[in-house]
Design brief:
The protein is α/β, with parallel strands linked by helices and 166 residues long. It contains eight helices and four strands. The chain is globular and about 50 Å long. InterPro entries: TPM_dom.
Length: 166
């Protein structure tokens, strides 16, 4: 285990998520997700976690592993068209992971998700958290619109739009 990573996580409490994403920012993100989902058959969920628990750190849990766990816990895979997308931010590591369900992932591929993550991480390093998430949502929206447009189909909101802070 890396000592520096351990220290970052120990000193990153819930206050860190509130500082990076005040209520107004969370409301903006929720509004962006809701607007996005009117134009495609996908579902987007944003989850920010301040830090991992000590046990997870000792086990060497990576941000990707944690994102997969959150994807499952939030049941983002449980959509009619298999088009759920999780944007997971682990603040202590400043790491963004996008986990996409098999329907959309098969059409988009890992390289696109990685590019979107890198763009978001660059915004976060500059302290522009809300802007980084909004830009990431816009890029994910473009992919979902291209591959799963509404096209007159029924488009229920299958997953809540409100961001989650852990």
């Amino acid at each position: 285990m890396q000592v520096i990573r351990f220290i970052k996580h120990i000193f990153s409490g819930p206050w860190r998520a509130r500082l990076a994403f005040p209520k107004h920012s969370l409301q903006v993100i929720e509004t962006e997700i809701a607007a996005s989902e009117t134009s495609h058959l996908g579902e987007i969920r944003f989850v920010v976690e301040s830090a991992l628990e000590i046990g997870e750190l000792l086990q060497g849990v990576t941000p990707r592993q944690r994102a997969l766990e959150v994807f499952s816990q939030c049941r983002i895979w449980d959509t009619e068209h298999n088009t759920g997308v999780l944007i997971y931010l682990l603040l202590a590591d400043r790491d963004v992971e996008i986990i996409a369900d098999r329907g959309i992932h098969a059409r988009v591929g890992e390289a696109v998700w990685t590019r979107i993550c890198m763009g978001m991480e660059a915004q976060f390093k500059a302290g522009r958290f809300e802007q980084g998430v909004v830009e990431g949502i816009a890029q994910i929206t473009a992919q979902l619109q291209q591959h799963f447009p509404v096209s007159g189909l029924d488009n229920p909101n299958e997953i809540p739009n409100a961001p989650i802070t852990l």
